[in-house]
Write a structure and sequence with these properties.
With 198 residues, the protein is an alpha+beta fold.
Length: 198
């Protein structure tokens, strides 16, 4: 009798353990991105074609963007992950970039910008619009000892903090594919040539 009771209890425990969603893996240009929306059951992912642009100083960059679309949920939410891939190194002022993005995109003024480690990098997070939108970013390719970056992640999420956003921030990971190695070396070479001219 005790054996049957123990087997029943163990069976119930095994089936009662929640199983999280499997981590997503997507390719965005020369970047492999993974994340886990764990407690979100229904969403789709759309990867947009790369878009060319220039920053305020005229430096060209490419934007790779993916949208996590939860519009089929009872209360629709979404998240956007953008990778900004610059042609040359730019100043790594990620906190300011997050604040400007949060301020200009949705609200008159973001609630705050806090430093936050994201994907093992020094990033920033801003809960905007009274915590209804979260904007975060971090550099992907940097130069050690210099405040410069060649690529960064800028992302936003309308998922509630405890139902999607926190998990996205905690699990996002970007790997640079080897196809980007030549571009990185060329940018470093250009940077060192500019430094020797000064």
């Amino acid at each position: 009798m005790n054996k049957i009771f123990i087997i029943v209890i163990l069976t119930v425990l095994v089936f009662a353990v929640p199983v999280g969603a499997k981590p997503e893996k997507i390719v965005m240009g020369p970047y492999n991105v993974s994340f886990d929306m764990e407690n979100i059951s229904t969403y789709s992912i759309k990867i947009n074609p790369p878009a060319e642009n220039k920053n305020l100083w005229g430096l060209p960059y490419t934007v790779y963007e993916a949208t996590i679309d939860g519009s089929s949920e009872e209360i629709p939410h979404s998240a956007e992950i953008s990778i900004l891939d610059f042609e040359g190194f730019v100043s790594n002022n990620i906190e300011e970039a997050v604040k400007v993005t949060a301020d200009s995109s949705w609200c008159k003024e973001s609630d705050a910008v806090v430093a936050r480690t994201i994907d093992s990098k020094e990033g920033a997070l801003s809960p905007a619009c009274d915590f209804s939108i979260f904007v975060f970013g971090y550099p992907i390719i940097t130069i050690d000892g210099a405040n410069l970056m060649l690529a960064s992640v800028m992302a936003s999420s309308t998922y509630p903090w405890d139902k999607g956003t926190s998990n996205l921030i905690d699990t996002i990971h970007v790997e640079v594919s080897s196809s980007k190695d030549k571009d990185i070396e060329a940018a470093k070479m250009n940077l060192s040539q500019e430094a020797t001219k000064e």
